[in-house]
Amino acid sequence: SSKAHPDIWLHRYLRAASWDVERAFASVKSVVEWRAAEALDVLNYEGEVGSGHDELRLGLSRLIGKDRLGFPLMYVKVRRIMPRLSEGFVFKRYLITIFEATQTVTRSYGRSTMLYDFTGFSMDNTPFQMVHFMVFLGMKPYADTSSVLILLVDNWLFTNFWSLIRPFLDVNLSSRIIFAKNVDEVKRFIDEDQIPVELGGRNTFSVEFVPPREGENALMFDMDGRRDAEKKWRQRVAAFEEATKEWCGQLAASKMSSNSSLGLTDAAALKRDAAAKELADSEVNLSKYVRARNIYERLGMVDEEGSLKLP
Questions:
Q1: By CB distance 3.0 to 4.6 Å, which of 19, 227, 254, 282 could disulfide with 233?
Q2: How sure is the predictor about 197, in pLDDT bands with cuts at 50, 70 and 90?
Q3: 203-215: per-residue pLDDT in tens?
Q4: C-alpha distance from residue 247 to each of 13, 266, 268, 270, 278 (Å)
Q5: Three-state helix/strand/coil letters over 274-308
Q6: Is the pLDDT of residue 249 over 60?
Q7: Does residue 68 contact residue 191 with C-beta atoms inside 8 Å?
Q8: Cβ distance 71 to 109 under 8 Å?
Q9: E strands of 144-290, at which residues?
Q10: Mean pLDDT of 8-15
């Protein structure tokens, strides 16, 4: 099935809830309500123009390569984070923008690996409110989107930082955190040619922030095109729902009868996967009309199917 299958989103919340269906459903419900309250449709429509320009320009976090399992690698320079120089609201919008962009371009991978570089950081880089909000984002709205979180630490101040966040971490997120005292320990998870040069690796790839360009979001003003894309998307949603009902019905029938119905179940699963692929394609097409382009799309790092291309 397609790696952009809609089931991937439900799987994330189920894994985060240790496969407790009621807890997972409650999480999905709360996230939908949170996205509506935060007006994320507006944030995605405005794109980077409506986010913290200074933070984007400083390059606090960037996708720079892959880990040993093939997951995209997000490199975060903690020492560059200076939230006290920005309004709290602006910095929160910046964090959400980063999570949204990362989730959008890495959808075909399912997850990404986070490498937090704490070398040379101070407590000014990690105020309590910002840390608490980042933990919230990682555990709730964007639950289970990280493969592992590698914390490269060479500073005794990290003990104070860790005491701030540890009480708020759930079991799922805590199990993904890995501490590394030096680059050699990082190499257990990331090959040397993917580790940034500044950390002692051989990865020279860097993503410099390029401001939005004139005309890159021209399709967002094409109302006829948007209505047509929305219509096709709704049709694909309805088709996927019908295919899912048929698949569930065949699964129930296979449990009530002999193995002769397994062939029908397999056929229903294939039909559902095909409907999922068509739905994913319609979402990528619709996004051109309702979401501003991000830095990775601007630099040509995203293919026509919306998947990130890394060196």
A1: 282
A2: very high
A3: 998 888 888 899 9
A4: 22, 9, 5, 9, 17
A5: HHHHHHHHHHHHHHHHHCCCCHHHHCCCECCCCCE
A6: yes
A7: yes
A8: yes
A9: 146-152, 177-180
A10: 89
